[in-house]
Structure formats: structure tokens, C-alpha cells
Design goal:
mainly alpha; 11 helices
């Protein structure tokens, strides 16, 4: 494919083989980011254990632990750098997984209903790039509302010059703002698409969707608990820990949903051609 043709004609409809190839490539890219993120998380845990071990050894020897010793400061610096890296990888993995989900849902819809899929549709929420300068541009640092501009930069990289809204929020609404996830097919549309999806793919999609919904809704209950005044009961502490771990799985569950969709698209296309 000629990349120049794609850039000059974002309305060009994508061929089936191109769609399948790009979805597969996105899956490989998400796998790379998830793997590197998990590696950084393991390193963070190792450094935390190292810091704790240094304190315990000092206490066992009857010595006063000083956080200003060179080794202790080095441990703290390395831990902070790794923490920042883990957050960066986590955000990047989530953004890429959201892009993959968005593209895979569009491909599913196209395969099931015959609606065209264009390069503009595909690139609308590409992480950290501006696919078509005339359509989406970074927010100005000289906006009247600097606080809002900063928030837009935090939530999204691309901002529509027509609406002034971040592309993610414009396309995905509150789901992106509250959960940093893309909008998924509503119940009526999902039923329509699933009816055109052969088994066992349809059942796998239902299960993957349910897993994403479970993680996303955990955030709502977490917010309720955090807003509660007064001490928490032991049961509430246990519930919070369980829900927090569940919400932490959202990126992986989004990636799994996109993977199941990617595998299903060729089957859906064949069944509806």
C-alpha cells in the first residue's frame, strides 16, 4: 500500500485484507507494550523489596536507618524513575488497547453490515499522532482556559478544531473521561452484530465484553467507597481491594476483547458475504 495515497485520501475505503492485516499488527503492538509494562512492574516490585530489605537489615543490626545515605537515595531515585516508567507504559498500553478495540469494533460492524471502513475512521484515535493535520490539531497552549487545555492534553492527544473537544472524549464520551476506555456497542447494536456472528465467536465475544464491563463498573463502586465519610468496615476494605484489582485488569481485558474481535472479523465477513 502507498502510504502517500492513504495520507492524501483519508476517505479511501479499506480492503478486507488490509483491515485484517492492520488489526493483527495492532495486536502485536499491544502485546509488545503489555509485555514491557509487565517487565517494568516486576522491576518496580524488586526495587520496593530492596528498599524494604535495607531498612529491615538496619533494624536487625540495631542501627538507625538513614534515608540520606547514598545507597538509600539511589534506591529511592531508581524506584521513582521506575514508577514513572510503569505509569507511562501503563498509559501507553491502555491508549493502544483502546485504539485496537475501536478499530476492531469498526471492522466487526463493517464485516457484519457491509458498512465501509475508511482510513479516516481508522486513524481518528491513533495514540499520540496527528493523522490528518486539517482534521485534528493539538490544543493551543494559549487558550483562554489554560486549565481546560491542560486537562485535554492529559486525557487526549488529539483535539478537533471544529468542536474544541479531545477526539477520545468526542468519540467515546464519559467512558473515556471516567474510565479511559472507548465506547463499546450499545445493547441493541451488539445484539444485531452478534446475530450476524457465527459460533463460537459470538459466545467468545459475549464473554470478553462481559469481562470488560465487569472491570469498568468496578470503578463506579470504588468511587462510591472513596466518597464515604468516616471509617471503613473491614468488609468495605476487602471490597475496595477486590474492586481495585479488578479495575487494574481493564487494559488486559480490553486487549482480550480486541483480540477476540480481530479473530472473529474474517469469520463474520465470510458469513455475511
Amino acid at each position: 500500500m502507498d502510504d502517500r495515497a492513504e495520507a492524501s485520501d483519508p476517505s479511501r475505503v479499506m480492503a478486507a485484507r488490509e483491515v485484517d492485516g492492520r488489526l493483527a499488527a495492532m495486536g502485536r503492538a499491544v502485546g509488545v507494550l503489555l509485555g514491557e509494562w509487565e517487565g517494568v512492574e516486576r522491576k518496580l516490585a524488586e526495587l520496593s523489596e530492596l528498599n524494604e530489605g535495607r531498612i529491615k537489615r538496619a533494624q536487625s543490626a540495631g542501627k538507625t536507618f538513614s534515608p540520606f545515605e547514598a545507597e538509600a537515595v539511589l534506591d529511592e531515585v531508581r524506584w521513582k524513575l521506575t514508577l514513572d516508567s510503569a505509569k507511562g507504559y501503563g498509559d501507553a498500553a491502555r491508549d493502544f488497547a483502546c485504539w485496537w478495540v475501536d478499530a476492531a469494533v469498526a471492522a466487526w460492524r463493517s464485516a457484519a453490515l457491509g458498512t465501509p471502513l475508511t482510513h479516516a475512521d481508522w486513524a481518528a484515535v491513533t495514540p499520540r499522532t496527528v493523522p490528518f493535520e486539517e482534521e485534528v490539531t493539538p490544543p493551543s497552549r494559549h487558550d483562554d482556559d489554560d486549565e481546560q487545555a491542560d486537562r485535554f492534553l492529559e486525557l487526549d492527544v488529539l483535539v478537533s478544531p471544529d468542536t474544541g473537544e479531545p477526539e477520545g472524549r468526542r468519540l467515546w464520551g464519559d467512558l473515556w473521561v471516567e474510565h479511559r476506555m472507548p465506547a463499546l456497542p450499545a445493547a441493541e447494536e451488539a445484539d444485531r452484530l452478534l446475530a450476524r456472528t457465527p459460533e463460537p465467536s459470538a459466545s467468545r465475544l459475549k464473554n470478553a465484553f462481559a469481562a470488560v464491563a465487569e472491570s469498568a463498573t468496578a470503578r463506579n463502586r470504588i468511587d462510591e467507597l472513596e466518597e464515604k465519610e468516616g471509617p471503613w468496615a473491614p468488609a468495605e476494605i476487602a471490597e475496595y481491594d477486590r474492586l481495585d484489582a479488578l479495575f487494574d485488569e481493564l487494559t488486559h481485558r480490553l486487549a482480550e476483547y480486541a483480540r477476540v474481535l480481530t479473530e472473529a472479523v474474517p469469520q463474520v465477513r465470510a458469513a455475511n458475504t
